[in-house]
Amino acid sequence: MNSKNKIISAHKALSISQRAKKKGLKVVFTNGCFDIVHAGHVKSLEKARSFGDILIVGLNSDLSVKRLKGKNRPINKFLDRAAVLAAFYCVDYVVGFSEDTPYRLIKDIKPDILVKGGDYNPKEVVGAEFSGKVKIIPLLKGRSTTKIIEKSRHK
User: The domain that contains 36 carries what CATH number?
Assistant: First the structure.
């Protein structure tokens, strides 16, 4: 599949999820800003994919990233971030959302497994009530987009 075809609308994500579940496939969902993709992101995406048959990644819009991370973010625009994620073999689909959290998207998709990084408490994961299970993946020590940006500005 061409990576461009992996960037889909919320409506299409819902349809794909429903069809997959009818076939008995497990749908996994994770989300993030993925502003500057690093080894920690790669590890978490590969691990998330290992939990099921289809991995859908929710990607914050540019305005959403700006609200969450500050006026100088995102570094990379939405379509560039989506293209990078879609190129990963472990990512089946990328779907954008403009809210600060993917609550509505998770509510619609109802993934079998919802995955977040180790900086989240399973009981506080947004949309957990709409998924079968919540899995927390340990963070890769020392990897963070914010730290990468800070390091690059101090050189």
Answer: 3.40.50.620
First to last CA, the chain: 40
The CA angle 118-56-8, to the nearest 5 degrees, is: 140
Task: For 118-127, write each residue's pLDDT tens digit.
Answer: 777 878 899 9
- The tokens describing 48, both together, are 């998330």
Amino acid sitting at position 154: H
Q: What tokens does 39 get? A: 């080894």
pTM for the full predicted model = 0.90
Distance (Å, whole) CA 18 – CA 71: 37
Total number of domains in the chain: 1
Q: Which residues pair with 136 in a beta bridge?
A: 116
DSSP code of residue 132: S
Q: Domain range holding 14?
A: 3-153
